[in-house]
Design brief:
Collagenase (Catalytic Domain), six-stranded mixed beta sheet, alpha/beta, 171 residues, binds zinc ion, 6 strands
């Protein structure tokens, strides 16, 4: 088993503004991740397509997109971003959604990511874009109107700086 030692990082989009959770972005994917949507999240296909296109324009590629009806849907495979319902233990009092990335201790690269999202915010503008940003390894960037702003209210569609660390990006 290659990935015995894994580190899990948790980030999310907050409805209120407070301290940044992740200040440095040091992790990225080696592969192009696939995306699985658990259907019970209520994420609409047009919303997902829109969110993925946002990142594709910045040079990212996704290996596949699939929708899963299984009740067991919830755990990402290696090489996968999964979009699933939150579990009981996570505090969602001031979060719209949250993302956990798993990093190989050996290579420091992201090997899987889990986006936790409620049906009530699943199709809200910018939320999925923001969480996919975390799934791709981006931390909060608290500039006004930035897609990675930690607060939804002061965020926007600005993508400034998001190309910098993508190693396969060709300008
Ligand atoms: Zn966030």
């Amino acid at each position: 088993m290659m990935f015995l030692n894994l580190i899990v990082l948790v980030m999310g989009l907050q409805t209120i503004h407070y301290e940044e959770l992740a200040k440095e972005r040091t992790h990225k994917w080696k592969m192009n991740p696939g995306v699985t949507v658990c259907n019970n999240t209520g994420v609409k296909s047009y919303r997902l397509t829109h969110a993925l296109k946002y990142w594709e324009k910045l040079g990212y590629k996704f290996d596949y997109i699939r929708y899963d009806d299984m009740i067991s849907c919830g755990e990402p495979r290696f090489g996968e971003i999964i979009i699933t319902l939150p579990d009981q233990k996570f505090d969602f009092s001031n979060h719209m959604a949250s993302t956990r990335i798993t990093i190989s201790n050996k290579t420091k690269e992201i090997v899987k990511a889990k986006i936790l999202i409620f049906p009530k915010t699943a199709n809200k503008d910018r939320v999925l874009e923001h969480e996919i940003g975390h799934a791709l390894g981006w931390p909060h960037i608290n500039q006004p109107y930035h897609i990675m702003n930690s607060s939804w209210h002061t965020g926007g569609h600005n993508s400034r700086g998001l190309k910098l660390f993508y190693k396969n990006y060709i300008d």
